[in-house]
Amino acid sequence: MRNRPDKDGTHRGAFERNKKKIFATCTTCGICGKPVDFSIKYPHPLSPCIDHIIPIAKGGHPSDIDNMQLAHWTCNREKSDKLMNRTMEKQGDEIVSNRVLPQSQDWKKYRA
Ligand SMILES: [Zn+2]
């Protein structure tokens, strides 16, 4: 029990290695398909980040390069928001009232 592979350095090391590889070889966002500017730094919404194609929460591999892609920070964020909304929809009707609000983009910023 002491050496769970997702808790010790194994995945972290592999993730960092694959992240460097992706940053060195990829130039476009895997979510929106637009170019990623590596001179932009976090927390800018268009800063580069790594997206897990299948989210770890959904059983995706945390450090396999096949499950990792280059993405804009904001695209990655929006994707996880959508996944979260989908989960919330199953739980009740409350999400429906949020949908009638105009300018969902501003609403998200407000929440953040
Ligand atoms: Zn993007």
UniProtKB/TrEMBL annotation:
Q: Name one Pfam family in it.
A: HNH
Species of origin: Dorea acetigenes
Single GO molecular-function term?
A: endonuclease activity
CDD domains associated with the record = HNHc
User: Key word Nuclease present in the record?
Assistant: yes
Entry keyword set? Endonuclease, Hydrolase, Nuclease
Query: Which InterPro entries does the record match to this protein?
Result: HNH, HNH_nuc
* Segments forming domain HNH nuclease: 18-77
Q: What is this protein called?
A: HNH endonuclease
